[in-house]
Structures are given as structure tokens and as C-alpha cells.
Recover the amino acids of this structure.
């Protein structure tokens, strides 16, 4: 079966799930009334025996997936990031992570930009902090739709619980369609020097890369990279880049605690202490056009470049 290429993280998930089910009939999709939100109606039509609908019951969806995994199947649970990690946190912890079951979670509308139309109730910038506090999870943070497709495929290959952070479907593509999902957890995009290491996670990569060009024009030696696995078991390449830099700046559409900034701060502290600046959310968001929201909350390329320049100048 050939499936057309999609842009956007939800469509990318749906395409990857279809292809996985085609090659392995153990792949299941458990939906807490999220079939349309996950763009997976075609999956239900083609593979009705692999689709389980539990209704608006996220806790029940996670428990159902745990049972399927215990029976040797490979269930994916997909819905809004906060409804998974907040409403079903106990189930994700006790009934999936504790017995180390092979369940894959995909949380959409992650971040401020993921829910810009719906406002704070559908903006989820605490999900990484929650999941990262639970032992056993592999956390994948793809930067766009193309990488989300490969992240879902990577999640299938990983044994044990996996959380994939996805967006709303309106994220700009940065990676080429066939660019692999880095198993090292880092992809270096620009290397203009080592005054400051500018690290991005998730759907702000396009803004970080623009900021890197601004810094280069000002004569600041900057290396810009994408971190696509948080708290992973393979961090040698990330540490290698940290060691090269005089200072580090992290940028993420997430609460300032528990996500990329916390992860990188730990690596810096434990391996090569130096100054770290974290650009992230410190308050609740609001509704509005995605670009305007990003700019207002400090994610404009200009604001990122300014913070990075200040960081480079203080060390």
C-alpha cells in the first residue's frame, strides 16, 4: 500500500501508523475519542480489528493499551498531550512504566503553539516534565511533520514505553522528508563557531535557525542543533557539542522546568559545567495566531538571538 506524503504532525502520525500496521498486524490504535483528531479514520477503515475505541476515557485507553501490550500486541495511544499525561498520568506510570510494557503514546497539541486556537485548556506545556519524571520512558521530540513520521517508526522499534510529542499540524517543515530520526538525540544544523551552543527541541527549530544566522552576522560563533530525544540513553554526541561550547542556550515550547532546559542543565552540570540560559515558558499562554503568540512569549528569532548574544558576552 502506498500512502501519499503528508505535512503536519498529525497526518505524519497517521501515515506512519498505516505503514506499521501493513507490515505488522500486531500494531494497534487505541482511541479515546481521538480518531479524527489523530487523522486516523482511514486506519479504522482498513484495519478495523486493530482499532479500539474507548470513548472519552483517557485512563481507560491507557489501561486497555496496557492489556494489549501484555498480550504481545504493539498498541499506540494517540490524543491531546495533556489529556494523556495529566488525566492518565497514574495509568501511564503504574500500569505501563512500572511493568515496562511496550505501549507507545503520541501527544498532540503539545506546547503553546499546538493549541493556539483553543487557548490554555488545549495548550500543553507540562507534558515533558510529567513524563520525564516517570522511570522507563523514551521521549521523542520531533521538530516537524517529516520528523514525526520517522519518530513514530522509531517508537515502534524501541522496546518499552515511548512518548512522542506532536503538534497541531500547522508546524513549518524544516527537515527533508527522508531525513532520518537521529538515534544520537542530536542533529547539528549550523556550525559557525563555539561561543554559544544554541539547542532547540520541538517545533521552534525554524526560529532557532534564523536566530543562528542573525548571531553569525553579528560575529558571534554559534552552533545550532536540534535535540530530538530527551533523557535518552545515548547522550555522548550531545555532551560532545556541550564540551566544545563556551556557553549553552536552550529553546523549547514547554514549561521552563522538566523539558529540554532541565535535561541539558543536568548534562552540563554532570559533564562540563558552564553557563546555561533557558528560553521557555514561565506562565500560562493564551489564544491567538501562532506566529504572534510565539513572538509575544519570547520565541521570535530576534528575541532568541538577543538572549544568546547576552549569554555569549557574559562568559
Amino acid at each position: 500500500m502506498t500512502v501519499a506524503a503528508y505535512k503536519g504532525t498529525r497526518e505524519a502520525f497517521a501515515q506512519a501508523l498505516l505503514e506499521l500496521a501493513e507490515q505488522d498486524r500486531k500494531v494497534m490504535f487505541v482511541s479515546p475519542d481521538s480518531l479524527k483528531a489523530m487523522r486516523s479514520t482511514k486506519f479504522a477503515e482498513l484495519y478495523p480489528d486493530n482499532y479500539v475505541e474507548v470513548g472519552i476515557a483517557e485512563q481507560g485507553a491507557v489501561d486497555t493499551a496496557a492489556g494489549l501490550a501484555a498480550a504481545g500486541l504493539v498498541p499506540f495511544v494517540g490524543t491531546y498531550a495533556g489529556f494523556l499525561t495529566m488525566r492518565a498520568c497514574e495509568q501511564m506510570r503504574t500500569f505501563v512504566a512500572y511493568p515496562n510494557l511496550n505501549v507507545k503514546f503520541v501527544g498532540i497539541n503539545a506546547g503553546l503553539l499546538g493549541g493556539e486556537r483553543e487557548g490554555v485548556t488545549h495548550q500543553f506545556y507540562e507534558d515533558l516534565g510529567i513524563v520525564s519524571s516517570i522511570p522507563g520512558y523514551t521521549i521523542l521530540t520531533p521538530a516537524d511533520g517529516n520528523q514525526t513520521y520517522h519518530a513514530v517508526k522509531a517508537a515502534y522499534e524501541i522496546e518499552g514505553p515511548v512518548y512522542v510529542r506532536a503538534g497541531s499540524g500547522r508546524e513549518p517543515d524544516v527537515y527533508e522528508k527522508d531525513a532520518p530520526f537521529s538515534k544520537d538525540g542530536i542533529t547539528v544544523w549550523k556550525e559557525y563557531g563555539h561561543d554559544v551552543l544554541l539547542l532547540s527541541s520541538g517545533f521552534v527549530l525554524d526560529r532557532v535557525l534564523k536566530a543562528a544566522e542573525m548571531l553569525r552576522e553579528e560575529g558571534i560563533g554559534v552552533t545550532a542543533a536540534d535535540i530530538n530525544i530527551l533523557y535518552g540513553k545515548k547522550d555522548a554526541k550531545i555532551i560532545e557539542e556541550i564540551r566544545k561550547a563556551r556557553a549553552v542556550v536552550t529553546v523549547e515550547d514547554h514549561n521552563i522546568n522538566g523539558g529540554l532546559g532541565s535535561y541539558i542543565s543536568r548534562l552540563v552540570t554532570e559533564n562540563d559545567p558552564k553557563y546555561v540560559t533557558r528560553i521557555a515558558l514561565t506562565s500560562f499562554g493564551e489564544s491567538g495566531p501562532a506566529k504572534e503568540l510565539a513572538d509575544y512569549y519570547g520565541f521570535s528569532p530576534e528575541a532568541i538571538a538577543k538572549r544568546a548574544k547576552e549569554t555569549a558576552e557574559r562568559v
